[in-house]
Amino acid sequence: MTVPVLVQQTNGQFCASLVGSPELRCIRPSRAEALAARQTELARKIADDELLNLDIQPLGVSGLAGRFQDDPELREIGEQIYRERDAQKPQ
Q1: How many structural domains is the chain composed of?
Q2: Residue 37 belongs to a domain
Q3: Which domain does 27 fall in, by range?
Q4: pLDDT for position 59
Q5: pLDDT digit string, tens, across residues 32-71
Q6: Concatenated DSSP letters for 20-43?
């Protein structure tokens, strides 16, 4: 699993926080220590089932993309529209 982590230097310390969850952060003297601590804490949370992946359906029109790709009725409707359009074109 890959997660985005933001590393910031403040007052001679390094803070590694999970993007979108600033409360999940580790502050250490070096960048490497902060990242290692963040990785260890995230691994612990995953092992304890505290950090999960949730699939969220896209909102709006993009949520419909591909939903009806195998619908034969929709395909027939589309083909009929193209036939009618082609019949109306001047020859």
Answers
A1: 1
A2: yes
A3: 5-47
A4: 72
A5: 999 999 999 888 888 887 777 778 776 777 777 777 788 8
A6: TEEEEEEEESSHHHHHHHHHHHHH
